[in-house]
Design a protein that fits this description.
about 525 residues, alpha+beta, Phosphorylase Kinase, domain 1, eight-stranded antiparallel beta sheet, six-stranded mixed beta sheet, 14 helices, 23 strands
């Protein structure tokens, strides 16, 4: 058996053409071994290989056995061709001149991620060949050949490093690497097999549509410009998100807390066009901003008591904590991207495909940030620490929830040269509500920050203080706020006007009403 120089698929000596789809290389013998003919042949191979690799990059295998397919047929289907699996970086410093072992650092496509747990890998190349490979570049594509065993598990039959003309077997310490269907399957919705309903919303990168006869899901389809400029990045990102969804602290029935991808959406040509996600019931929810602002909340008949506000803050912290525990970051965390369930007080996070996703070897940066929720260290530069940005934005939202919608960087300036906008106040660190009063800015008169317990005020002081690395994590917020939400009978109490307040503290609502000119 020999290997096709284009796709590396094995063939026998009687074959005149490769049978791998998208390859079809015609096997020819050189009439002579002259340098000119050899160079022409190698150039033709190089061009054909480049075309084949481009075609491979846009395809992923279907790793689910069809119900009408036997295990033998499943294995045969998988083994018919190779698949683009990612790239390998040659580690020159680890090359062993005596054995020819050239170690690799592998960077897998999302569908190959279970392989990332495989042992150390290498190729074998004598010194001159190793040097020649390395001079072409330290990073090269890898291809994978698959098969299946009698249990229907997908096996890696072979992995090859492709370096122009030459291909090399990638060798692992653990020779047999098994993919399980549960781990490897990527759910796909084909546009040709579903009927789209009405358009539910338009965003910068595309539009969200309902799916007829599928009331529990919607699909987000990216527009042509997004697919042209960022389509491949989004495809890899969504596939990775499908395997790395956060585990939420609450699993309340019929409550969507994350609009997280549940399937890839492809057109009839197998092109990536978007993704499916759970359908959020907007009839049961309001924008969180409406709840944060007391007047808007009253107009929409939302609960405005302290118990509700603490519960919402705790629930939001829990969702953000779950996202962070998976290594993901929201970055553009703000109330407009959050929906509140009116009765249940759970918070739903939208626009999850714009998160910064944790995927070693790839960088999926968030595309947007909002200045009034942007940490001071990033006001005039890119967000270099997404976790710190999330911690800051979460603290701003919690502060507004617990203090009648007041932004922590609004106040009454004592200096004529003070900034006149929120972004300027944030950049200058003008936080007026600390336990130790700020010298350059006073609090808003209707603020109820002095009615908060010390442990919550100290969290805010850390969040908005000069030591950025001391900001509370989402988990810290959740642990503290959840305790108040679950123990409202002992940690909260009614004031003489029947407002809820923190036990042993003045009533923030009474203070606010007095400033505004009367009690309610």
């Amino acid at each position: 058996m020999q290997n096709c120089p284009i796709c590396a698929a094995p063939y026998d000596e009687f074959s005149d053409r490769c049978k791998t789809p998208n390859c079809g290389w015609q096997f020819i013998s050189l009439l002579s071994d002259s340098p000119a003919e050899r160079a022409a042949y190698e150039e033709k191979v190089k061009q054909a290989k480049e075309v084949f690799q481009v075609q491979q990059f846009n395809q992923t295998p279907d790793l689910i056995r069809d119900p009408f397919e036997t295990n033998e047929e499943f294995a045969e289907r998988l083994s018919k061709r190779s698949w683009f699996a990612g790239s390998a970086t040659l580690i020159k410093s680890g090359y062993d001149i005596n054995t020819g072992k050239f170690p690799l650092e592998l960077h897998y496509e999302p569908w190959v991620l279970p392989l990332s747990h495989a042992d150390v890998s290498h190729v074998i190349a004598p010194r001159d060949l190793a040097r020649s490979i390395y001079e072409k570049g330290e990073k090269h594509p890898i291809q994978v050949f698959l098969t299946a065993n009698i249990a229907g598990e997908v096996l890696v039959d072979r992995i090859m490093l492709v370096t122009g003309i030459d291909s090399f077997d990638v060798i692992f310490t653990n020779e047999n690497v098994i993919f399980t269907n549960e781990a490897m399957s990527i759910p796909v919705i084909w546009l040709s097999k579903v009927r789209l309903g009405k358009e539910l919303g338009i965003v910068c990168e595309g539009a969200v549509h309902e799916v007829k006869n599928e009331p529990e899901i919607v699909v987000k389809l990216y527009n042509a410009e997004t697919l042209r400029n960022h389509g491949r990045e989004y495809e890899i990102k969504i596939e990775h998100m499908l395997h790395h969804a956060p585990s939420l602290p609450s699993h309340a029935p019929r409550i969507v807390q994350l609009c997280w991808p549940t399937a890839i959406v492809r057109d009839s040509s197998s092109n990536f066009v978007g993704f499916a996600m759970p359908r959020l019931d907007f009839g049961r929810t309001e924008k969180l901003e409406s709840f944060i602002q007391p007047k808007l909340a009253q107009q929409k008949n939302l609960r405005t008591d302290l118990g509700a506000r603490i519960t919402v803050a705790a629930n939001l912290s829990g969702v953000v904590s779950a996202i962070h525990e998976m290594g993901h970051r929201i970055v553009d965390l703000k109330p407009i991207n959050l929906q509140l369930y009116r009765q249940e007080l759970y918070v739903a996070v939208l626009s999850c495909d714009n998160f910064e996703i944790n995927f070693p070897g790839h960088s999926f940066s968030a595309l947007w940030v909002t200045p009034e929720y942007l940490a001071p260290e990033f006001q005039d530069k890119p967000v270099s620490n997404p976790e710190q940005q999330d911690r800051f934005a979460l603290a701003v939202i919690i502060f507004k929830l617990l203090n009648f919608g007041i932004h922590p960087y609004t106040g009454i300036a004592k200096d004529r040269n003070a900034p006149t906008d929120l972004e300027g106040n944030i950049a200058k660190g003008l936080y007026a509500y600390a336990i130790k009063p700020h010298l350059k800015i006073d609090p808003m008169r209707m603020s109820g920050h002095q009615c908060l317990p010390d442990e919550i005020r100290m969290l805010f002081d850390r969040a908005f203080g000069a030591r950025f690395d001391q900001r509370p994590t989402a988990r810290e917020w959740f642990d503290v706020l959840q305790r108040y939400a679950l123990n409202s009978n002992t940690l909260l109490e009614p004031c003489h006007e029947r407002h809820l307040k923190f036990s042993g503290q003045p009533c923030g609502e009474c203070h606010r009403n007095a400033v505004l000119g009367g009690s309610r």
